[in-house]
Amino acid sequence: MSLEIPQLTDFSETSLDAAFSAVLRDARNGRTATNFDAEAFRLEWLGRKQGRLGQLSAAWLKNAPAETKKSLGMRFNKLKSQIEAARTSTTETSTKEIAGLDVTLPGASRRVGVEHPLVQTMAEIVSVFQRMGYSVGLGPEVETDFYNFEALNFPPNHPARDTQDTLVIADQDKKPLRDRLLMRTHTSPVQIRTMLEQAPPLRIVIPGKVHRNDAADATHSPVFHQVEGLCVGEDITFSDLKGTLDYAMKAFFGSSVKTRFFPSFFPFTEPSADVQISCIFCSGKGCRKCKHSGWIELLGCGMVDPAVFEQVNQRRIELGREPLYDPARISGFAFGMGVDRIAMMKYGISDIGLLYSGDMRFLAQFGNQEQLA
Questions:
Q1: Strand, helix or coil at 215?
Q2: Rounded Cα distance, 340 and 116, in Å
Q3: How far apart are CA 67 and CA 53, in angstroms?
Q4: How many CB atoms lie within 10 A of CB 332?
Q5: Contact residues for 116 (Cβ-Cβ < 8 A; gap 6+)
Q6: Treating both helix axes as pointing N-terminal to C-terminal, what angle do 69-88 and 13-31 enclose, rounded to 10 degrees?
Q7: In the prediction, which pLDDT does 62 show?
């Protein structure tokens, strides 16, 4: 069928924009026609011999000045793509399709996945402390030796560093020790970073992934997760620490859970303590889970060592800032717990490796199985 081809005499950019827009508009109007036929539309616009686009291209390029032919060719290529997209588009529903739509049919629901058990557990722990007024602190997984060790009272060659052996980034030997990069062994560096940026009082809870050079077995992994907390201000005491953790454990495990504290050692807290909770499986009566003791060791804590505040003040001075953490006036407490172990307790998981296997058969137990199928 012979089609009338509009003539083009003005080849300015403005005139070309208007002409090509008009052609594209005509094509889209044809796409939304009531009696739309995809094959007829293709032949009319994109047919090799009689297609409207080919005839337009031949007529306009023939009369175009030499300096505009390249630009015209590019415009026709783009126009062809736009017309092809309009022909195959399923987003522009025709009037015929709309008329046949049954609005009483149920909608098509998109299957949504569920959170990983580690993510669920970490979020629940964090929410307990958020309800007590703690804000959430985050930091990098690749840290410097200063933030991961030195600022937390792990001086070079300190034996406590051996318990937190980690992966060190390559080609760091020429840097000063405090500037060498490594994978963080705890989320405690975020405590230092927060104190460098914020004045007391502060209360933060810090969830995140950490790394240690541990051999993998049923209860250990070289990659695991922690939730740590820090509370700093005036007149903060060990009693505040005990009350906070006792409330948190009851909020997470149930009001019947009891807590008890035993002396321990951590380089960045003094005094330090290990915290046990009454066994959630036997209610403290004694079972295999708690090795018949009635208690399960769950986390570590302590009062922030004044040496840590001194490190923060010294670093603030190095950065040209005012020292704000006077150990004679400021005190605080810190705590930390392993998320993986708590998740294993909560969900009855016997092998930590299952949490990192990516096995959908295992993960399907923790949510709607139809969503995970």
A1: coil
A2: 11
A3: 21
A4: 24
A5: 355, 363, 366
A6: 20
A7: 78
C-alpha angle 163/346/223, rounded to 5°? 35
pTM: 0.66
Q: Tokens standing for 96? A: 């015929």
3-state percent helix, strand, coil for the chain, nearest multiple of 5? 45, 20, 40
What type of residue sits at position 322? Answer: E
Q: Which of 171, 168, 204 is nearest to 189 (CA)?
A: 204
Higher local confidence (pLDDT), 185 or 18? 185
Nearest Cα to 27, choosing from 81, 77, 93, 73? 81
More confident residue, 371 or 335: 335
Own/partner pairs, 174-182, CB within 8 angstroms, 24+ separation? 177/145, 177/150, 178/144, 178/145, 178/146, 178/150, 179/144, 179/145, 179/146, 180/144, 180/145, 181/142, 181/143, 181/144, 182/142, 182/143, 182/144, 182/145, 182/148
| Cis peptide, bond prior to residue 140, ω within 30 of zero | no
Q: CA 291, CA 218: separation in Å to the nearest integer? A: 17
Q: Which of 25-39, 71-85, 208-222 has the lowest average pLDDT?
A: 25-39
The answer to whether 144 touches 172, Cβ cutoff 8 Å, is no
How many CA atoms lie less than 13 Å away from 148 in the CB half-sphere? 26
Count the alpha carbons within 13 Å of 181 in the hemisphere toward its beta carbon. 7
Q: What is the pLDDT of residues 188-202, one digit of tens each?
A: 999 999 999 999 999
Phi-psi region of 358 (alpha: psi -120 to 50; beta: other; left: phi over 0): left
Residue 230, token pair as written in the block? 């820090």
Nearest in space to 281 (alpha carbons), one of 271, 272, 293, 273: 293
CA angle, 293 as apex, 291 and 295 as ends, to 5°? Answer: 100
